[in-house]
């Protein structure tokens, strides 16, 4: 006879679930939750989103069929998902200062530090190892864990919602009363039937601030984002030309966008990140568009080493900055830099077309007085009033 508990011993599973949350916190996850893998209710929503073409050029969103809503197809044997939250809001975010100055580049605050994918996956692996060690101590088989962060075909937000990490905001991001929404999600898929957590109640109420403040009208209805209009998609995911009618709406945002989170009242209480790695690197902190436009490919690769920004490559980097330069008020130096870049042999056809557009915008502004963007002015007031620490 042996005293080893059975794999389904309820008290062992309860203790393990408590330990996992404790270990997760020790590894830097601000919150850890557990859910089952039933996402059947999400399938028609996902299908509708794809049918409407909201994924745009992101072919990977459609190519795995409904696997995104079926974690056990992604990793056979999975019965539970451990969902984790890691906060990324850096100190000195200086949102308003940055958005206010149209000659300065705005880079989404999740991307100013080290690439989060590797960091979160490593921590998740450590959590998986600790779980397996605990199981081994009871002579139980391992958890078969697989860590995922962002890029796998899995619906991370609905899983996080089920696991009690937060509710789905009308901007479609997960947010929580104590945490706001400035966090990444990641998960461990495991084969242990751990007790599950309960979802938190939605607290958006009548608020629609994210919907009305989106510069491009990308939140087409509550909880639904048409990626093709989202600045995050246009500056990061889209490979080709940015549609001309949307270019003026990008302002100085050259990599991602934070507006729907900036106007969210729940973010007033958001904690700063505990990770030094997510602090904004000096070479990306409040930089002028012209300085960044002058980076050649070698400099771009060097300055973005280990950062998520590197993934878009130098060509899209230049494309995005050209649009922002076109959106800046008239400036001789901008016209000179665009003109020099236009005749240089290194600019691709894609970049050249955006440079041409930017030059036209600049020259047009030289002749006419540009008007202030009212939506932008409102956004700045909201940030300065609502987020004084981060403004
Ligand atoms: C594709 C993608 C994008 C696309 C499309 C965005 C979108 N809304 O789908 C683009 C490039 C635009 C994008 C932008 C951003 N993204 Co993104 N993105 C993803 C990715 C890879 C897949 C998302 C997805 O499955 N979309 C398909 C749609 C159908 O699913 P969904 O948006 O989750 O929608 C569900 C809910 O809205 C819900 N729903 C729909 N209708 C209704 C109705 C009601 C009543 C309710 C309650 C729910 C509900 O059901 C849907 C399906 O299950 C995830 C990582 C992952 N693997 O999940 C990261 C992810 C969602 N992105 C993330 C981030 C941080 C961003 C940006 C903030 C980055 C930035 N600053 O530029 C922006 C935010 C834009 C926004 N408002 O969504 C984080 C979000 C963290 C969080 N706190 O929620 C994720 C989870 C990555 C990560 N691992 O941390 N992203
Ligand atoms: S990230 Fe920007 S563009 Fe995209 S939905 Fe939010 S506010 Fe709109
Ligand atoms: S801005 Fe308002 S509606 Fe949008 S997520 Fe925040 S609380 Fe919800």
UniProtKB/TrEMBL annotation:
Domain 4Fe-4S ferredoxin-type: 194-224
Gene3D superfamilies: 3.30.70.20
Binding sites annotated in the UniProt record for [4Fe-4S] cluster 2: 214, 230, 257, 260
Protein name: Epoxyqueuosine reductase
Cofactor section: cob(II)alamin; [4Fe-4S] cluster
Major localisation: cytoplasm
EC number assigned by the record: 1.17.99.6
Cited function: Catalyzes the conversion of epoxyqueuosine (oQ) to queuosine (Q), which is a hypermodified base found in the wobble positions of tRNA(Asp), tRNA(Asn), tRNA(His) and tRNA(Tyr).
A GO MF label: epoxyqueuosine reductase activity
Keywords tagged on the record: 4Fe-4S, Cobalamin, Cobalt, Cytoplasm, Iron, Iron-sulfur, Metal-binding, Oxidoreductase, Queuosine biosynthesis, tRNA processing
Recorded superkingdom: Bacteria
Database matches in NCBIfam families: tRNA epoxyqueuosine(34) reductase QueG
UniProt-annotated binding residues for cob(II)alamin: 68, 150, 168, 174, 185, 232, 257-258
Catalyzed chemical reaction(s): epoxyqueuosine(34) in tRNA + AH2 = queuosine(34) in tRNA + A + H2O
First-tier enzyme category under EC: oxidoreductase
Record gene name: queG
Protein residues bound to [4Fe-4S] cluster 1: 204, 207, 210, 264
